[in-house]
Design goal:
This protein is α/β, with parallel strands linked by helices. Helices cover 46% and strands 19% of the residues. The chain has a single domain, classed as Rossmann fold, CATH 3.40.50. The protein has a five-stranded parallel sheet with strand order 2-1-3-4-5, sandwiched between helices. Helix 4 links the parallel strand 4 and strand 5. Helix 2 packs parallel to helix 3. The chain is globular. The two termini are 16 Å apart. Pfam families: Response_reg.
Length: 121
């Protein structure tokens, strides 16, 4: 299946998302902050990125913008997965280049369906 990079500063969220993805046969790469996520995406070229927003240092909006604007990583779809569920956050996330936007706690079926959608496009 696909190689998915999960970028989240919460060990609990990393554990939950990794479990959901591995259950569906995906290989998971992990980063605990935006800067490490960008570096890992550039080095490993995952099939997709699940990006948290609220993280120390480089936040998820900034990291998403770096990935989607860089010709080297622009083809990697980014799905924002966050607790921020305001419409303005959704719009801003999409403006940074995110292909989709999910709010936590994320439903496993919705996550897998969304992932299939971005991987197919």
């Amino acid at each position: 299946m696909a190689r998915i990079l999960v970028v989240d500063d919460s060990p609990t969220e990393l554990y939950k998302l990794t479990g959901m993805l591995e259950k569906h046969g995906h290989q998971v790469l992990k980063a605990e902050n935006g800067a490490d996520g960008v570096a890992l995406a550039r080095a490993e070229k995952p099939d997709a990125v699940l990006m948290d927003i609220v993280m120390p240092g480089l936040n998820g909006f900034q990291a998403t913008r770096q990935l989607t604007k860089d010709p080297e990583t622009a083809q990697i779809p980014v799905i924002i997965v966050t607790t921020k569920d305001q419409e303005t956050d959704r719009v801003w996330g999409k403006r940074q280049g995110a292909r989709d936007y999910l709010t936590k706690p994320v439903d496993e079926a919705v996550l897998i369906s969304t992932l299939k959608g971005v991987l197919a496009s």
